[in-house]
Amino acid sequence: MSIDTKHRDLEGLRIDRTALPEESSTTKWSRKFIIAAVGLVALLGLGTFAYRYLFTPAPEVEVVRAAAEGGSDIAGSVVLTATGYVVPHHKINVNSKVTGRVKWIGVEKGDKVKEGQVLVKLEDDEFRAQYHQARGSADAAVAFYDELQHGSRPEEISQAQHNLDEARATLANDKLTLDRNRQLFSQGVVSKQALDDSTARFESDQQRVNSLEKVFQLSKIGPRQEEIARARGQLAQAEGQAAYAKSLLDATVIRAPVSGTILERTAEKGELITAQFASSAEGGPQGSVVSLADLNDIQADLDVAQDDFAKLTPHQKAIVTVDAFPDLKWDGVIAEVSPEANRQKATVEVKVQILNPDAHLRPEMNTTVRFLADENKGETTRQAVGAFVPSAAIRDADGKKFVFIALNGKVLKREVKVLSQRSAGALVSGLNGGESVVTTAPEGLKDGDKIKIKGQS
């Protein structure tokens, strides 16, 4: 085919635009409206995106610092790590044996006290009066008992003898008068009334003589043993009441039961103190005045998972650290293991005695305890190198574990592998330690999202 022929065929396929109908003004206006609407929607979308990105406040999250483990700074092999709290071995809540109002309190929180030191004084006027009353009764019982113990005095015996002799003389005189009146009555000189009066007087005096003879004999013999025993019992009762009243009076002065440090002061001057009906209401009676403990005798209180409990042995050595001073370490040893497990948490309580405590350690501090392998067993297995993170920081997606790390105002997703489970978290690989891992965050948090750390401006 020639070139001219091809050219004529192509010309035949060209559209003749002069034959098309002319576009109307209405169609042109509709096209412009559609283009403007599409542009407006695009601008609104861009504006919404910019507002959300630039002006929407970042969600607030909570973070903790991942703790590195498995380093060479700890002598010996670490077989288990557990977290817990520093607690005093013995914490004493000092309260009152009596109910009273605080008159004086001489300690503040943090003060160091010696055993027997006066901490609080209560108002004691009533207790002092009760004691003086009981003491007076006891003194009277002592005097009466001593009187019975010593018997009658010589002067009392002499007086009884004198009274008896006087009665006998009166009886002899009345006997003579009676005999004389009997003779005169037989002669008709005296009346029958006079004879009867003489007879009655003689018989009365005879009875008086008999009574005084008994009194004289008893004064020489002394009191009965039963009377002495009764007086002894009354004396013991009175002494007991006096001692009880004295103990109540002494209880108004509250002293430190042991040497230690004041952990809490729960009462103030003028408040009512009682150990019987303490109230939680404002202004109600308080159940204690202070709490104290010996901070030279402190322990780490831990909950060890039952799965890890078999790794521990009695008196096993450990290294103790606290979150407040991560660069400091203290020696420890297992001092107490609970005889029963906690079924709800699937843990066993273990207490580690801190052997070299100092002023850095305070009760209720967060602590981490690394238990060392028993050197006598020749154990060489070292704990895997990794970092310890709380359970709340570990997330799961598609069967893979990951954590969010807070860095420069954003979160970064970091995959991790759980090496071992702990009572409060897990040892994971993929972290070096020291990272700020997110524990609490809103739903839908994604890699790269902006965040705000709680507590930081």
Structure description:
With 457 residues, this protein is α+β, with helices and mostly antiparallel strands. The radius of gyration is 52 Å and the shape is elongated. It has a six-stranded antiparallel β-barrel. A four-stranded antiparallel β-sheet has the order 2-17-22-21, with no helix packed on it. A four-stranded antiparallel β-sheet has the order 4-11-9-6, with no helix packed on it. It is 34% helix and 29% strand. Strand 13 and strand 14 form a beta hairpin. It has six helices and 24 strands. The protein folds into five domains: 75 residues, conserved putative lor/sdh protein from methanococcus maripaludis s2 fold (Beta Barrel), CATH 2.40.420; 101 residues, Efflux pump adaptor protein, beta barrel domain (Elongation Factor Tu (Ef-tu), domain 3, Beta Barrel); 72 residues, Beta Barrel (OB fold (Dihydrolipoamide Acetyltransferase, E2P)), CATH 2.40.50.100; 42 residues; 71 residues, Helix hairpin bin (Helix Hairpins, Orthogonal Bundle).
Please name the defining characteristics of this protein:
457 residues, alpha+beta, conserved putative lor/sdh protein from methanococcus maripaludis s2 fold, Elongation Factor Tu (Ef-tu), domain 3, OB fold (Dihydrolipoamide Acetyltransferase, E2P), six-stranded antiparallel β-barrel, 24 strands, 29% strand, elongated
